[in-house]
Write a structure and sequence with these properties.
The chain is mostly helical and 60 residues long. The chain has one helix and no strands.
């Protein structure tokens, strides 16, 4: 038996793999873009003199 013989449901199986890969790639892209946006916002706040809180040393 050929491991790549997907039988009569080949279209459905390939479509499911494509959708899954697309969703995972979209989530990875979203996380990367969101991180860039948050880092930019944090850098702007630090330029204004507002520092990040580290652990229990929150700025009051």
């Amino acid at each position: 038996m050929d491991p790549f013989d997907l039988g009569p449901h080949a279209g459905f199986i390939i479509a499911c793999y494509f959708i899954t890969i697309s969703v995972v790639a979209g989530l990875i892209a979203w996380v990367v873009l969101d991180r860039r946006q948050l880092n930019k916002a944090l850098n702007e706040l630090e330029e204004q003199g507002i520092k990040r809180a580290r652990g229990n040393q929150a700025q009051s």
